[in-house]
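User: Hi! I'm working on a homework problem where we have to compare a predicted structure to a textbook description. Could you give me the structure for the chain below?
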Amino acid sequence: MSADTLVEHARKLHRQAIVIDCHSDILNPLADGRCRLKDRAIVEPPGSWEGAEQVKVRVRPTPYQLSPYATWFQCIGQYDIPRFREGGVTAQVMAIYVDDAFLCAPVERALDMVATLYRELENNPESLLLATATNDIRRAKAEGKIALLLSFEGAEPLGRNLNLLEVFYRLGVRMISLTHSRRNFLADGTQVGVKTGGLTLLGREVVRRMNELGLVIDLAHLGDVGFWEILELSRDPVIVSHTSVCKDSSEYRASFTAVDPQRGTSKLKALANKGGVVGILFWDQPDIDAIVEEIQTVLQHVGDDHVALGSDFFSLDRAPRGLEDISKLPNLTEHLVKRGYSDEMILKLLGGNIMRVLEEVLK
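Assistant: Happy to help. Predicted structure tokens:
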């Protein structure tokens, strides 16, 4: 094929695909009233931003060494309806993450974020719909809309009350990672420099109840002990919504092959044997080629049935070149086509694999 023919084929393939991104934190700035999904948000580029000194005094330390720029802008300007449309996105997972500042009232913060999502749905009915089952995602594709799927990134809003799991299920939550980068009543997260354990008795009960309700279990940001315990406990496939498999850094304790290749490969194979998928992280990657390397690593170890998209954009200063926001997803498809990956593999990566898991898990 000529270069032009390859590009046109990639565009056609991307339009054909059900495209699902497994992780975004855009609900946080939305809930804070700093942006709206209908508007194409424009933020100052990192090199010209002059607010660093003022923001530094209000920035709390994080495990991820975020710059003042990233802490201030977060993922504003990387996820919105215009960009979803340009990126050909069929479904976007919207994470409820309770920042440390809100841990005094995690249920209230989570409900604020749910209310924010419902307000966006009501204000943009021509563009958005809520996905609680795979039929909703297919309907979004057929109608040219974007399906939004609610998740928890850390189950702090549940506290010790198992009844709240069903409450949030009825509100539309369909995916939960038990922890982020801290310890809670359910399990230990990936805490740098801390000896971590696994699931609590309540955490084990939550896993069982999630299987009964039909909630996808997400192992992102979960400590190693809990990772293996959930693989043993869950009767359903589980996922890692967003992670790196290649980065060698303390910031990537949820990564697979980088820090300890043998252990990481074992985790990948165990996840695949469970029927699960790994969402490839875009955040902090240098460029599209690095993302393709991540994809190739998963393919090499477990094949093409277990890889998905897990962008987790979090500011332009750590976005990959050529894939700076969700609108640039067609560039990834083009790169994969030019490198000779099959149409079948690309369609699985873009959404087919995660759709398979959702079909099996969601009731």
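For your comparison, note the following. Residues 217 and 238 are 5 Å apart (CA to CA). The mean pLDDT is 92. Good luck with the assignment!
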